Each structure stands twice: as C-alpha cells, then as structure tokens.
C-alpha cells in the first residue's frame, strides 16, 4: 500500500478511474496523432460571448453572484427553456446555475438519493454517471442498450431491473457515446413506466442543441413528467464553452432548492465572469449555435457514411458529435482495436467498453474535428482495417 492510502475514504478507493484518461495520456506523448478521442467542440467560443465576459471584468464584476446564479442569467435561461423546449421554469425558484452540467448532475443526485437507493443508468453512457451515484451512496443499476436497437433504451428494459429500492432513472438524449437520440414518442413510452413506478428522472440534455432530427423533445415536456424531472443542461457543447465550466439545472422548486442547499455550502456560485458571458450567449448566441450544429451535421453525414464504407458498421446517430461503430468483424476487442489503431496509424479513438458493458465491440469517435482531419482519419482507418484482413 502506498503511504497515505490508509487515509483515503472507502468511497474514493472503490471508485473506478475514467477509462478515457489512459488513452489521452498515451496519445499526448505521440506526434502526428489525429484525435477523435475528446468529447468537446472544435469551435472557439464566439467573440461576442468572450467580449461580454471581458467587459464584465473591466467593469469590476469580480465578486460572488447569488448562490443560484445571476438573476439576469436565470431569466435568460427561463426564456430559453420556454422558447426552445416549451417548458416553463421560474427564474427565482426553479433554476440553478452550476459549474458545468457535471455539477448539476452531482447536485441532483446528492439532493435526492439516500444510501441504498437504486438509480437506473442506461449504458453505454457518460463515464461519470455511476461514480456520481456511488459517491452519493446510491447504487447504479445499469441497463444495456444494444446496436440492434441503435442504442436506444427500450421501455421494457426499465421494468426488468425495477426493485422496491429503485428511485430514479438517469437518461441522456442525445447520448454520449452513442449519439443516439430518443424522439418524443419513445420518451412517452419511457414516461409511462416512470409514472407507473413513481420514479424521478435526471434528464441529461447537454447535447440538446446538437440534435439532427426535428423531433427533439426535452423529457420535462412530456405529459406529467415536468414534476418528476430534473433537467440538466449547460453551455459546454451547444455554445462551445467547455472551459467556462457553466451549466444549469431546471426542475420543480422542491428539487432545485434542495440542490441549492448543497451548492451554497460546497461551491457558493458558478464563476462570475463566465455567467456574464453566458447572458450574452443566451441573448444573442442562437445563430452561432445553429451554424455550429449545421457544421457538425455535415461532418456526421460524411463520417458515418465513410465508416460504413470501410466496413465499420455504424448507425446514423441522431445527435451529439459521436459515431459509435462496431469493430466486431475485425475480431479485435475494443481495447486492442483502439490501442493498435493509435500505435500503427496514429488515430486516437476511445474503446467502447469504457462506457459500459454493451459498448464492447465498439469504439467512440468524436467527429468534432476539421473535415480535413476526418478525411485523413478515414484514410488511415481504412488502411488499418485492410491490413487486419490481410493478416487474418
Ligand atoms: N453529460 C454528458 C453526457 C457529457 O458528455 C458531458 C461532457 N462530456 C457532461 C455531462 C459534462 O458537461 P460539462 O462540461 O457541462 O460539465
């Protein structure tokens, strides 16, 4: 045992480190690598947003904001949720501004989950979900979506794992890592089961602005779901603001005020200059968002078509900026495929099984990189797959 280990909490000792990190560390020591590994936009935050933030510093807004966030920002978020998703939240009671969607998720879970409560998580999924639940003393109960269903949650899968201890379900649409998006009719079927079993829902909608089908719906907009749902969203993906660390949660006052109680003791407030930038993002940033969405869409269409052409079967993802092709026909595991592709062709992808059991046999490729890089990545991946066939 390393000295100091004996002082660590059991919760931390039992936590699994993120499987993505290891690949970044490997790739960062190499030259000429094309990275399809990172889950973030390749755009710089628009100048107007940066300028608004700079201006706030020039004007001396350097103190804490209200714990729940600048009221001006909460008002903008309220309008945004209404205009974009047809859901109403009061800026005073039903919205909290957080340090990324990450903190919003953490607060939502900690405010509602008691030790031993079970939370259904839908794998493959964002690597933090299980850890967030475990840190709150809850038990993550995974259900596995599969390639046959384009990685879309089937409502009956929820019923199969329900127990008297099931309290909540965490859903994410559009999804990281699969890009799958649940349309309104599919959400309605999930809502029936949520209601039947009296569950609450953590709905991670961080990729809402990056959906490519008209039928996107916020889970809170589904009949009778508003009162059971905490919507998690933020500025990282749609507004290309990952480094600003700004997100928000919306929900019934009872949930948001409970989250605020934790937030005011553990975080005080989200960064002030970032909040000033975000006001500008909400007021005038939607054209930029639409422009970026269109650009991802073009890249999705090229990249997914090309993956299929080189023999890596991939469903057409409805949102986010990830493709999740199967590599099963190569006979390699996800780990071997990703490792060898990096070593032989210098293309970094993430093995699918780090996102959950049913991610095995798949890799996650982020296409949030230039078209030129994507074309070169496809060229290299094609060569890699062809060489495998020759060896076999
Ligand atoms: N949820 C999902 C599904 C994500 O992919 C990410 C970021 N990779 C987050 C939440 C966290 O986002 P933020 O930067 O706002 O903390």
TrEMBL record:
SUPFAM superfamilies to which the protein is assigned, alphabetical: PLP-dependent transferases
Cofactor(s), by name:
pyridoxal 5'-phosphate
Q: Which UniProt keywords apply?
A: Aminotransferase, Pyridoxal phosphate, Transferase
Q: Name one GO biological process term.
A: amino acid metabolic process
Q: What class of enzyme is it?
A: transferase
EC number from the UniProt entry: 2.6.1.-
Q: What is this protein called?
A: Aminotransferase
């Amino acid at each position: 045992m390393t000295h100091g280990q004996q002082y660590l909490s059991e919760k931390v000792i039992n936590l699994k480190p993120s499987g993505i990190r290891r690949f970044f560390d490997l790739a960062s020591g190499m030259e000429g690598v094309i990275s399809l590994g990172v889950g973030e936009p390749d755009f710089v935050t628009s100048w107007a947003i940066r300028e608004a933030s700079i201006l706030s510093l020039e004007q001396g807004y350097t103190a804490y904001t209200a714990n729940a966030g600048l009221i001006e920002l909460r008002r903008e978020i309220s309008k945004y949720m209404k205009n974009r998703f047809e859901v109403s939240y009061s800026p005073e009671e039903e919205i909290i501004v957080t340090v990324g969607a990450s903190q919003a998720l953490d607060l939502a879970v900690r405010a509602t989950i008691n030790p031993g409560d079970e939370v259904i998580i839908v794998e493959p999924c964002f690597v933090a979900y299980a850890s967030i639940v475990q840190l709150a003393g809850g038990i993550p109960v995974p259900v596995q979506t599969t390639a046959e269903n384009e990685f879309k949650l089937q409502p009956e899968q929820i019923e199969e794992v329900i127990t008297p201890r099931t309290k909540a379900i965490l859903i994410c649409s559009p999804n990281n890592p699969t890009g799958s998006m649940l349309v309104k009719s599919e959400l309605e079927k999930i809502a029936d089961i949520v209601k039947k079993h009296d569950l609450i829902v953590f709905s991670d909608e961080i990729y809402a602005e990056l959906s490519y089908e008209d039928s996107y719906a916020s889970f809170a907009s589904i009949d009778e779901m508003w009162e059971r749902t905490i919507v998690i969203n933020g500025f990282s993906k749609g507004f290309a603001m990952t480094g600003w660390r700004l997100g928000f949660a919306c929900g019934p006052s009872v949930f948001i005020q409970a989250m605020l109680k934790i937030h005011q003791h553990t975080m005080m407030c989200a960064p002030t200059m970032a909040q000033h930038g975000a006001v500008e993002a909400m007021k005038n940033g939607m054209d930029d968002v639409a422009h970026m969405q269109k650009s991802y869409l073009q890249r999705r269409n090229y990249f997914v078509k090309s993956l299929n052409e080189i023999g890596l079967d991939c469903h057409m993802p409805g949102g986010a900026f990830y493709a999740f092709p199967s590599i099963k026909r190569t006979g390699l595991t996800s780990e071997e495929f990703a490792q060898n592709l990096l070593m032989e062709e210098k293309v970094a992808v993430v093995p699918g099984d780090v996102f959950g059991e049913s991610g095995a046999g798949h890799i996650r490729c982020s296409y949030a990189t230039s078209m030129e890089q994507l074309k070169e990545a496809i060229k290299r991946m094609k060569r890699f797959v062809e060489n495998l066939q020759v060896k076999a």
